[in-house]
Design goal:
This protein has a five-stranded parallel β-sheet, with helices on both faces. Helix 7 (169-176) crosses helix 8. The longest helix has 20 residues, at 224-243. It folds into two domains: 3-131, Rossmann fold; 142-316, Reverse transcriptase/Diguanylate cyclase domain (Alpha-Beta Plaits, 2-Layer Sandwich). The chain is built from twelve helices and twelve strands. It has 317 residues and is of the alpha/beta class. The two termini are 36 Å apart. The protein has helices at 11-22, 34-47, 65-74, 92-100, 113-131, 142-154, 169-176, 178-186, 188-198, 224-243, 245-250, 289-306, and strands at 3-7, 27-31, 53-57, 83-87, 105-108, 159-167, 206-211, 214-219, 252-256, 262-266, 269-277, 312-316. The protein is elongated.
Length: 317
């Protein structure tokens, strides 16, 4: 259930919108004007539970919806709350003013109830999607990965789950520092999207961040090995840009271990475990198909790592 804070100085509009959105099982809290809306946002901020969405009438006395939006978006603690403005003004300048204030969407009155519900749902989907993004890489996280796998299975066509792991990354982090390691993870999103495009899956394949130095690409079986190879090249370039030309050419570097002894380490390299899934068979014998997929991928990855850093192993589930 999503929590929506709706501010409007017209009682009948408050009642109508509340009942409309409550029918979609949203919890709708009402504010009689902009002052009350700002006070409630501040209270919920102190409680550690911000609204999932602010729905604001623009032309309220005292503090307008535009000003409420502007103040909410100016505070970094509340700037992530999406704002949908409702207004009777239809001029382009009025809509631009709303977006200049930081609004995420704008709906002119009178509006059709179905359109209001659709816009509310779209903004809430955006919130859920952004909340699940890894803060370092910017890639979708576990919930989005699960949804992507289920969606591919529902299509009824075979797909490949390509798990990518950076070998020797902890030693790299210890040797070159958090900033260098964080930079590799931060740029991973762009690198993986470039690899997917190179393999022919731009706009089609899904790229996600499992966590740490583990990533996932959901692609077509015929593209999986190309995706793995391109990902390895792009990650290699990322690492090379942070270790210097000599280490990049050698593929190794010298650094002190935890006991202070100098050792030679290989540069991080991508190991890929590709599991090709047939939706007709996936989950038939297993009560938890996602769990079964994860277990198979972990096993494939262990055997790929045993085969040597940078290996790619493909199996069917």
């Amino acid at each position: 259930m999503s929590h929506i804070l709706y501010a409007d100085d017209h009682a009948h509009m408050r009642t109508m919108v509340r009942d409309l959105l409550a029918a979609d099982r949203h919890a709708v809290e009402l504010a009689v004007d902009g002052v009350a809306a700002l006070a409630r946002v501040a209270e919920r901020l102190a409680e550690g539970r911000l609204p999932d969405l602010l729905l604001l009438d623009v032309t309220m006395p005292g503090v307008s919806g535009l000003e409420v939006c502007r103040r909410v978006k100016a505070d970094p603690r509340t700037a992530g709350v999406p704002v949908l403005l409702l207004t009777g003004e239809t001029l382009v300048d009025d809509r631009v003013a709303g977006f200049d204030a930081g609004a995420d969407d704008y709906l002119p009155k009178p509006f059709h109830p179905r359109e209001l519900r659709a816009r509310v749902q779209a903004l809430l989907r955006l919130v859920r999607r952004e909340a699940d993004r890894n803060p370092t890489s910017g890639l979708p996280g576990s919930a989005a990965i699960e949804a992507a796998l289920r969606a591919r299975a529902a299509e009824g066509r075979a797909f490949a789950a390509c798990y990518l792991d950076l070998d020797h990354f902890k030693a790299f982090n210890d040797a070159f520092g958090f900033a260098a390691a964080d930079g590799v993870i931060r740029d991973a999103g762009a690198a993986l999207h470039a690899a997917v495009a190179e393999a022919g899956g731009a706009g089609v394949d899904f790229v996600g961040h499992v966590g740490g130095d583990d990533f996932l690409v959901v692609t077509a079986p015929e593209r999986a090995e190309r995706v793995a190879a391109a990902s390895a090249r792009h990650f290699r370039a990322l690492v090379a840009g942070r270790v210097g030309a000599e280490a990049a050419v050698r593929g190794r570097y010298r650094a002190a271990d935890r006991e202070g002894r100098e050792r030679e380490y290989p540069l991080p390299a991508v190991t890929a475990a590709v599991v090709v899934v047939d939706p007709a068979r996936w989950g038939a014998p297993a009560p938890d198909p996602l769990g079964a997929l994860g277990e198979r991928a972990a096993d494939v990855k262990r055997r790929a790592e045993a085969a040597g850093g940078g290996a790619t192993l493909v199996e069917c589930l």
